[in-house]
Each structure stands twice: as structure tokens, then as C-alpha cells.
Amino acid sequence: MNRIKHGNVNKWTATKPGQVIEFASSKPRHVKFEITANSNIEIWVADNQKMSDAVLVGTSNGKTEIQYTAPATTYVQIKAEKSADVFVNIPDLDQAVESTDNPSFTSIEPRVNNSTEFDRMMAFMKHNETQRNAQLEAERAVLRAEVAKIKAVQADEAIIEAEEAQAEDAGETPE
Questions:
Q1: Last residue in a domain, options 89, 124, 141
Q2: Same domain flag for 84 and 124
């Protein structure tokens, strides 16, 4: 089974075999178009309207799509039998945007989701965060108290050792 998709038939225009089609451009561009015919066709591309130095880019006996990149204006000639019906679909693909020096005051920001489910989840997250912070602060307070006890014990031991060392130097015997 042969399937052919043509899209909008109003975009297809009849052309005579041997007619030259101009793809005007002042800069490099990508050229894309479709051709359908009821006979064998040849598609030639050149950089001048006289088609000297033309290059064969395709042959077909039905529907075909042609794509090529051109450095500037190019000319296309479709060669077919004189009695052939040839139709082309040349969409306007030139999407060049001229740069302007006008400042742009827009920025792309993520869209804010204001659904009730989103608000509910955010409330749960904030509640969990406050509980976690309170628990961490309580654990830190317990650790600070233990560190203070250890430092107090170490200080007491250091004082006792210093007193014993003084007593030995003085010739006293510790009790």
C-alpha cells in the first residue's frame, strides 16, 4: 500500500516543466520544498538564473521533498516531459528575526502553581521544617550541657593536679 500525505492542497501550485524558481536570500539559508508530478522529473539547482553550472539534486517519478543549504540566492529548475503536470509546495520557512537595540524588560520565570494541593504541601513542608529545627536545637542544647560538664570536670582535675604538684615541691605529702 502506498501512502502519500499532501497536507493542505491549497498550498500546492502548478508549475511548467523547465520553469526556473528563485529562492532569494542575502545570507545563507536552508531551502526546503516538495514536488509532485505525473512523470519522471529532474531537479536542478544553480546560483544564477541562466542555470549555468547547475547541479542535479534529485530525480523522482512521484512525490519528493528537496532540502539543501545555500550560501545566497539560488535558482531551481524542474525538468520533466512537456505534457507532465508538475506541482510544488514551497512553504515560507524564513524565520529570520532582525536584531534591535531596544532593551527587553521581560524575563522567563517559572510559572507559580497556586493550586490548593500545592499550598497544602507547602504548609506541611513548613511545619516539618519548624519541627525539625526545634528538635535539632534541643539536641544541640543537650550536647552543649554535656560539653560544659566535661570541661568543668577537666578543669577540676587540672586544679587538683596543680595543687598536688605544688604540694610536692613544698615538701608536703598529700593526704
A1: 89
A2: no
Distance CA 109, CA 71 (A): 38
Q: Are residues 76 and 123 part of one domain?
A: no
pLDDT in tens, 34-61: 998 888 999 999 988 888 888 899 898 8
Phi-psi region at 171: left, alpha or beta (left = phi > 0; alpha = psi -120 to 50): left
What is the pLDDT confidence band of residue 110, given thresholds at 50, 70 and 90? confident
Backbone angles phi, psi at 92, to 5 degrees: -85, 100
Domain hosting residue 54, numbered range:
9-89
> 89, 107, 138 — which closes off a domain?
89
The tens digit of pLDDT for each residue in 119-145 reads: 888 899 999 999 999 999 999 999 999
Bridge partners (DSSP) of residue 55 are 45
Mean pLDDT of the chain: 84
DSSP 8-state symbol, 26: S
The closest of 13, 105, 2, 15 to 62, measured between CA atoms, is 2
Q: What amino acid is encoded at 60 in this protein?
A: S
Between CA 32 and CA 93 the distance in angstroms is: 8
Stated pTM of the model:
0.50
How long a stretch of residues is the chain? 175
